[in-house]
Each structure stands twice: as structure tokens, then as C-alpha cells.
Amino acid sequence: MTVLRSVIKGVGSALPEKILTNAEIAARVETNDEWITQRTGIKQRHVAAEGEKTSDLATKAAQAALAHAGLDISAIDAIIVATTTPDETFPATATRVQMNLGMTRGFAFDVQAVCSGFIYALTVADQMIKGGLVRKALVIGAETMSRLLDWNDRTTCILFGDGAGAVVLQAESGKGDTTDRGILSSHLFSDGRQHDLLYVNGGPSTSTNVGSIKMQGREVFRHAVDHMADVVLHALGSNNMSVTDLDWLVPHQANLRILNATAEKLSMPMEKVVVTVDKHGNTSAASIPLAIASAVKEGKFKPGQLLVLEALGGGFTWGAVLLRW
Ligand code: UT7
């Protein structure tokens, strides 16, 4: 039986020029490079310049992904931007990206699932491709998390960074089994009861201000380690596969200790885990496409290899996408 598969044809990324080191943060709040490195694995993060918007980073990443795919914007049917730091409360940042790219047809919208945003956006695009609504889509994760930080709160301001990553997804026909290239399955979850562990204390219908990130770090850490391992096993099990079938784990980059613990729970060597948290910090919805772009640049993924992308974020939301490169 022939089925439609969503295949990644191009990847791109964009990072703000300004790099903020741990030492620079230590000059502002009571912390130090040793603590941040030991507890998080983060050495630096990129921070948007004044006036540099989420849509600017998203546009640059999209342009790079289009160039990598060898496609013109006129070929794209839809743009989906996963972001928790939109330019404005409305309209969707994706429509600004659409304008920046010179796209005058199709449609563009945002998806909000915080750090799981890219997994959710990829799933939405995949379903639209499978349903026949879209042939080619730009799926972007873009964030300016620095705008949501309380720079006096040492428990959060050390963690986050800004950036964007993008992929071009294209419909291709497959056989309908797990040897197909492209997205094999997606698995989404959320649990609104966990709201208070990780949220922003602002928004249009509450404070009317943007607010800043509030997090119970230790609790989030505990849930992250549980879900990040479980969701990978769930994705593999749903396809009658096991961890030994997996070539690469591309997790949301929140904390190196979470990545280590997840790999350990899965009995996966860290050599198979894509790690960028040391350079980017936690870029929320941008972290997975940034990690993909970085791995592609390093020539890590080979055609036919099996990847799991996975994330957990505020909500809680979490999920995984299993795909063959
Ligand atoms: O994208 C998903 C969302 N986020 C996450 O996944 C983050 C999950 N959580 C974490 O990554 C970790 O919990 C943190 C990195 C946030 C914190 O690490 P931890 O090992 O859980 O530390 P802790 O919160 O238990 O704090 C330990 C100590 C505390 O001091 P006392 O009470 O033991 O005296 C904190 O006050 O470390 C102190 N501390 C710091 N010290 C130096 C907290 N932040 C800092 C800091 N520098 N920046």
C-alpha cells in the first residue's frame, strides 16, 4: 500500500550574534561558571540584540532551510512557527515570517506548546501532509527566551537562550512500513495539572503584561527524566522497534544532566545523543531544530538512519516524533 510520508528536505538555523557566557551572567547575579556547568552543562547562550525579533531569527532559519532544500519560497504551501515568544500577542509570528519570505499564497500560523512546540508543529504539518492539504511546509522553532527572563533570578536566567531552527517538510510516497523515509509516527501528551511547576506569570487575559518565567526546577527535572525516557520507549514500541534500532536521539536541550539520565535509562550511549545545550542553552521550541541543523552540519545523520526527536515543556506538554532520515 502506498502512503504519504513527510520527509525533511532541508534544514537551517539562525543564532543571534551576541554570545552570553556564564562568567558574564556571574557578573550580574550570584552564580558562577562551575555551578552552571556542573548542574546544567551550559557554557554559553546566544541573546537577541535590542530590536531583534523572533520573526527575524525565524526568517533567517527558514531562508537557510529553503536554500539547503534547493527550493524557492513559491514552492511552500504552509508555514508553521512553534514559539512561546511571539513578536506580538497577535497576529501569529508565522504571518510576519510569511511576509518576510515574500510568500503570497498558502497559509501561516503559530503553535504554542512551549519547549515541546517543535514536536507539536512537526506533528501538525505531518498530519496536513498526510491529509493532502499541504505538499511542502516550512516548520520553524523560534524563540527570544531572553525577553521572558527575570535577570535577577539566578535559578532561571542561567538556563535559557535565543535562536531559531527550521526544516522543509515534503510529501513523498512510501510503502507504509518502517523502512520508509520520513516521519513514521508522532506521539503527543499533555497534563495541565502540572501548570504551576513551569509557567510565565503574565499574559493578555491575566496580568496584561508579558511576565517572566517561574519554575520549580527540581520538580521539572524529575518529571523530565521520567517522560523523556518513557516517550521514546512509547514511540519505538508503537512501531515494534526497540532502543537498539535507534541511531540518534535528538532531545530537547534543557539540561545536560537530563540528557545523561535519559540516555542512561534507555541504555543508550551518549555518542548517539545530539547535544547542543552547552552552546545554546535552553532555546525552548527552537532547541530541536537547532540541534538537527547542528548535527546535519557535522554530517552526523546518514540516509536511512532512525531518529527520535523528543521534548518536554511547560503545561506540561511532551511528545516524540520517530523518523527515518
Ligand atoms: O525545558 C524544560 C524546562 N526546564 C527544565 O527542564 C529545567 C529542569 N531543572 C533543572 O535543570 C535544574 O533543576 C536546575 C538547573 C534549574 C537547578 O539544578 P538543581 O540541581 O535542581 O539545583 P536546586 O534547584 O536543587 O538548587 C541547589 C542549590 C540551592 O541552594 P541550597 O538551597 O541547596 O543552599 C540553590 O539556591 O543551588 C542553588 N542555586 C544556585 N547556585 C548558584 C540555584 N541556582 C543557582 C545558580 N548558581 N544559578
Number of helices: 9
Overall pLDDT score: 98
Bound molecules: oxa(dethia)-CoA
Across the major sheet, the strand order is: 1-7-6-4-5
Any idea of the CATH class of the largest domain? Alpha Beta
Strand content: 25-35%
Helix percent reads 25-40%
Structural class: alpha/beta
CATH superfamily of the largest domain, by name, is Thiolase/Chalcone synthase
Give an overview in words:
- By secondary structure, this protein is an alpha/beta fold.
- It has two domains: 3-174, Thiolase/Chalcone synthase (Peroxisomal Thiolase, Chain A, domain 1, 3-Layer(aba) Sandwich); 182-324, Thiolase/Chalcone synthase (Peroxisomal Thiolase, Chain A, domain 1).
- 31% of the residues lie in helices and 26% in strands.
- A five-stranded mixed beta sheet has the order 1-7-6-4-5, sandwiched between helices. A four-stranded mixed beta sheet has the order 8-13-12-11, sandwiched between helices. The chain has a two-stranded antiparallel sheet with strand order 2-3.
- A hairpin with a 3-residue loop joins β12 and β13 (317-324).
- α3 crosses α4 and α6 (217-238) packs parallel to α7.
- The model has no long low-confidence stretch (mean pLDDT 98).
- The protein binds oxa(dethia)-CoA (UT7).
- Oxa(dethia)-CoA binds at residues 31, 35, 39-40, 115, 154-155, 158, 198, 217-218, 220-221, 224, 254-255, 258, 282, 312-313.
